[in-house]
Every structure is written in structure tokens, then in C-alpha cells.
Design goal:
The structure holds 2 protein chains of 2 kinds. By secondary structure, chain A is mainly α. Helix content of chain A is 80%, strand content 0%. Chain B is an all-alpha fold. The chains are: A mainly alpha, B mainly alpha.
């Protein structure tokens, strides 16, 4: 236990502490010019201590101090009603619902494509290069257009954002599942043949279980990128809510704290969702006896 | 009606052609099949859009996109220069370079490595694009802010990949270097850096896509009147979707070329790796 603490927790804590120290130093350094300017205009002298405390309490700082962001997050999550438009939880829910819907769509599409690619040589040779090519292009650039096009057809809001998340998250799933479904070695496939197993049985009893570890790795990447997709989907149309709309509003009105709290909030959500998939992965794989 | 028929015929024909091509086990087939697939998609697209009278504000035809592409070459070129040459490339070089040097700097401290690796992995999963509005506030509207976003986006994936790569040499090989009485730097340059090649190029390839995305998205938050992201968002406002698609085609082409260039260098630099053998 102590050993594990020494091996893993301590280094991480050190790095986190270093980041916070650098952050505070940056706050003082970046906000100081404005304070000096103010003091000069008022004709007063600032002592060093005063300068430092002032830089951490600015209304519109260049870089807010960590505790300012923490206070802002606390005020907009715990102290506001969840249904209020000023609540970060409200915005988080709007983004997360699009993320999760898109993630589900992307995963289903990805798995279906991978199954098709595995079983059909035509699909393998014709679809796979385009799936890969589709990811060398900046997909997110298409996001605003998808939103506008879907809006013209009459689909807006949740589904439009979710389709962008789906578009982004299907790729890691396809690649991971194709690799996973092909991972059983020839010996095992031959064994299934000697059992006279049907294609369905081979898939269900052999290919699918051996693909699961690959699937979970892909899911972690997919959910993170699905969140990015949902946030980007909120940018171009001036969506009513969500992390992306929050960032855009913050940047229009120069409310730095709002941008930072939305950013940190999104980061926390991403961390939680990836962590959740990690926990499910551990449970499922240890039930299957595949955990390392 | 005729166009719908054309689409149907193209679909059947493309499918049949690919089905026959698959049976030939030649190198030509592996090249031809994706091309046939792509061309079929384009023909079906054109057929459906004209046949069903889909308005151009929803989906323009490939022909319309092509004419927008050829008719606006100077504009598209200016956007390309602003976004790719001025924002993406400097940001990519600085971001990947900084990450590589950081990985080398903390290479001798296992303590820092154990601390940075999980945090780098976490940061690589975070929606880093979100810093775009902050960077636009800090560095202004021109390309500097876009390059800054690209730097941050490239940093963590590259850092994690380089750190993984530096651990990729096998203990046996490191022992051999020890028996040669090789110094730390000799081991680094003769063994560990070459061995980390596949990992480093993996990071570089991931970063090509991220860099382009970062630059284009950052332009949504404020930009001078040139640039791919700017063009996309304004042309959408004008409902000129053929121009938007032309811009996307340019972005796709630029992204593929960028990726292809890095992949080409990878093939040349890590020719010894098993994944490049044969075929």
C-alpha cells in the first residue's frame, strides 16, 4: 500500500502541485501590467505584496487564478438551481446528452461497419481506405455545415450535435473492432471449423469475446472525442446552451471566468466519462477472465 | 427521373465492378477498388441531388462544388496560406518540438515520468480545443493565436508518444550498450531514439489532424477576414454551400497531403520496422 503510494500517487501529486504553482506564477506575471497601469493612473505606489494580491482578484484577468476559477465553478454549480440558465450543471447536461446520444450512435455504426468489413472482402477493400481517409481530413471543419444542413431539413439541436459526435466517434470504434475481430489466431478459427460452427457461432463465441478488450480501448477514445464534437457543434449556430455556447458567450463579452469554468467543467466531464468506461472495462474483463 | 436512374445504374455498376475486381488478386485491384467506390459515391450523389431536386442550400452537386473550387482559386489559396502555412505549420513544429524536448528532459527522472505520463494521458483526452477563445484573447485575431492553439493541442499526444517510445528499447539491447561502456548520450542516439521512431511518428501523425482542426476551430472565435475557418463560417451565413464544400475539399486535401508527407517520412526513417516489411 505504502509502496503503491510512493510509486504512483506521489509523483502525480508533485506534478499537479508544480502545475498549480506555475499557474499562480503566471497569474501574477500576466496580470501585473494591468495593475501597474491602474496604479500609475491613480498616482499611487503599489507594494509587491499588494500587487500580488491584486493580480489574483481582478474582475477580468488575463489569466484567472486557480481559486478564482474554483469559486466560479462552485457558485455556478452548487449555489444555483439546476434548471437555471446560469447553472453550469444545466449547460453540462445539454452538452452531455448530445455527447452520449452521439456516442451511442457512433459506437453502433462503428461496430456494424467493422462486422461488415470483417465478413465481406468487397467492403474491406472499398470502405476501409475511405474510413481512414475520412479521418485525415479535419472533420470538425464540417461540423458547422452539418448543423446548418440538418437545420434546413428541420432537424436541429440535440440530434444535429449528436450526429457530429457520432461522426467523430465511429472511427476509433471501426479501427479497434476490425483489429479486435481479426485478433483470434488461425488455430482458434480452425478449432471452430472442426466443431462445424456456423459463421454466427464463430462470431458470437470467438470473435466477439476476443474483440472486447480492443472495443473498450476504442470506447475511451470515442467518448472523449464525442464530447469535443458536441462542444464544437454548439459553436457555429449560437446554440442556446451547453459548454460550447458558454465559451462563445464568454469570449463575446470578455468574461474570462466563464470561459475557464466551462473549460474546466468540460475537462472534468471528459475525465469522469473516460474513468467510468475504465471501471466498466475492469469489471467486464475480470468477469471474462481477460483482465491483466 | 433520368438522374435517379443514373444513380441506380451507377450503384449497381460500381458494386458489380468491385465484386469482379475483388476476385483478381493483383496489386492493381487494391488500388482500383477504393477509387471505383469513391467515383460511384460521387455519381450517386450527383444523381440523387439533381434527380430529387434537393435545393443547393442543403446539398450542392459535386459539379457545382467543382466549379466553385475552380472559380475561386485566389481566395482559396489565400485561406490556405493563412490557415495552413501561417497557423498550422509553425504551431505543429513548435508544439511537437517542445513535447519532444520535454520528453528528453525528463527522461532521466523516473519520478517525473511517473507523474507526467498519467497527466499527459488525461490531458490528451480533454477537450483542449476549448482554449481557443482564451488564446484569441491573449494573442489577438491574427495567426499567432491559432498557432498557439495548435501548439497546446499537439503537445500532450506528442509528449505521451515520445515518452512511450523512449521506453521501447528492450532491456537486452540496453544491457548490450552497457557492456560496450556506452555513455548515456551514446545509448540515446544509437539505440533509444531510433527504437522510439515508430512511436514518435505515430504521435506526429496524430498531431497532423489535430493541428488542422485546432487552427480551423480557433478561427471560429475571431479572425482577420481570411482563413479557412473564417470562410466556412461566413459562407454558411450567406448560404453559399458550394463554396463551403469547396473549402472543405481544400481542407481535406491539405490534411491528407500533410498526413501523407509525415507517413512518407516515417517509411523512409523507420524502414526497418515490421509493419513496413513485405507487401
Amino acid at each position: 500500500m505504502i509502496e503503491a503510494l510512493h510509486q504512483r500517487t506521489l509523483p502525480i501529486l508533485t506534478v499537479v502541485a508544480a502545475i498549480i504553482v506555475i499557474w499562480y506564477a503566471g497569474t501574477v506575471f500576466l496580470n501585473a501590467p494591468w495593475e501597474r497601469d491602474q496604479a500609475e493612473r491613480a498616482g499611487t505606489e503599489l507594494s509587491l505584496g499588494q500587487l500580488i494580491t491584486n493580480t489574483m482578484a481582478q474582475e477580468r484577468p488575463v489569466l484567472p487564478a486557480p481559486h478564482q476559477v474554483a469559486v466560479e465553478i462552485w457558485e455556478t454549480t452548487a449555489l444555483k438551481k439546476v434548471t437555471s440558465k446560469r447553472s453550469l450543471v444545466y449547460h453540462a447536461w445539454i452538452t452531455l446528452s448530445a455527447t452520449l446520444l452521439g456516442f451511442a450512435m457512433g459506437v453502433v455504426l462503428g461496430i456494424l461497419l467493422a462486422v461488415g468489413i470483417i465478413h465481406s472482402r468487397v467492403m474491406n477493400l472499398s470502405v476501409m481506405p475511405w474510413v481512414i481517409a475520412s479521418q485525415t481530413v479535419p472533420i470538425l471543419a464540417i461540423a458547422p455545415m452539418i448543423i446548418v444542413v440538418l437545420y434546413n431539413i428541420g432537424v436541429s439541436g440535440l440530434i444535429a450535435k449528436a450526429s457530429i459526435s457520432a461522426y467523430l466517434s465511429f472511427f476509433p470504434v471501426v479501427v479497434g473492432m476490425v483489429k479486435g475481430l481479426r485478433s483470434p489466431d488461425p488455430m482458434q478459427l480452425d478449432l471452430m471449423r472442426t466443431y462445424n460452427a456456423s459463421a454466427w457461432l464463430v462470431f458470437w463465441k470467438l470473435r466477439w469475446p476476443s474483440a472486447l478488450p480492443y472495443l473498450f480501448t476504442s470506447l475511451k477514445i470515442a467518448i472523449a472525442i464525442a464530447l469535443v464534437g458536441a462542444i464544437i457543434g454548439e459553436l457555429p449556430t449560437g446554440a442556446q446552451g451547453g459548454f460550447g455556447a458558454r465559451m462563445l458567450n464568454g469570449s463575446y463579452y470578455g468574461q474570462v471566468l466563464i470561459i475557464w469554468s466551462a473549460l474546466i467543467g468540460a475537462a472534468i466531464c471528459a475525465g469522469l466519462m473516460v474513468g467510468l468506461i475504465g471501471v466498466i472495462q475492469k469489471l467486464v474483463l475480470s468477469r471474462m477472465g481477460l483482465a491483466r | 427521373m433520368t438522374w435517379l436512374l443514373v444513380a441506380l445504374v451507377a450503384w449497381a455498376g460500381g458494386w458489380w465492378l468491385n465484386a469482379t475486381l475483388v476476385k483478381q488478386q493483383s496489386g492493381l485491384a487494391t488500388f482500383a477498388i477504393p477509387v471505383v467506390f469513391g467515383v460511384t459515391i460521387l455519381v450517386i450523389w450527383h444523381g440523387l441531388v439533381t434527380g430529387l431536386n434537393v435545393p443547393a442550400v442543403i446539398l450542392p452537386t459535386p459539379v457545382a462544388i467543382w466549379s466553385a473550387l475552380t472559380g475561386n482559386v485566389p481566395t482559396l489559396w489565400a485561406d490556405f496560406v493563412q490557415t495552413v502555412l501561417k497557423s498550422v505549420l509553425p504551431g505543429y513544429v513548435i508544439g511537437c518540438g517542445a513535447a519532444f524536448l520535454t520528453a528528453l528532459a525528463i527522461d532521466r527522472s523516473p519520478f517525473l515520468q511517473r507523474g507526467l505520463l498519467p497527466i499527459g494521458n488525461l490531458a490528451a483526452a480533454l477537450p483542449i480545443v476549448g482554449i481557443a477563445p482564451i488564446m484569441v484573447m491573449w494573442f489577438g485575431f491574427d495567426w499567432h493565436s491559432k498557432a498557439a492553439v495548435v501548439v497546446v493541442m499537439c503537445f500532450f499526444p506528442m509528449l505521451v508518444n515520445t515518452m512511450e517510445g523512449l521506453r521501447a528499447s528492450e532491456p537486452m539491447q540496453r544491457d548490450l550498450m552497457r557492456t560496450y561502456a556506452a555513455s548515456y548520450w551514446q545509448t540515446l542516439f544509437k539505440l533509444r531514439l531510433p527504437a522510439s521512431g515508430p512511436f514518435i511518428f505515430n504521435g506526429l501523425k496524430i498531431c497532423t489532424t489535430l493541428a488542422l482542426i485546432g487552427a480551423i476551430v480557433a478561427e471560429f472565435f475571431g479572425t482577420p477576414i481570411v482563413g479557412m475557418g473564417f470562410r466556412i463560417s461566413t459562407e454558411i451565413g450567406r448560404m453559399a454551400l458550394d463554396m463551403v464544400w469547396a473549402e472543405i475539399a481544400v481542407a481535406a486535401l491539405a490534411g491528407s497531403l500533410f498526413y501523407g508527407a509525415v507517413a512518407f517520412i516515417e517509411r523512409a526513417a523507420t524502414f526497418w520496422h515490421p509493419s513496413h516489411r513485405g507487401s
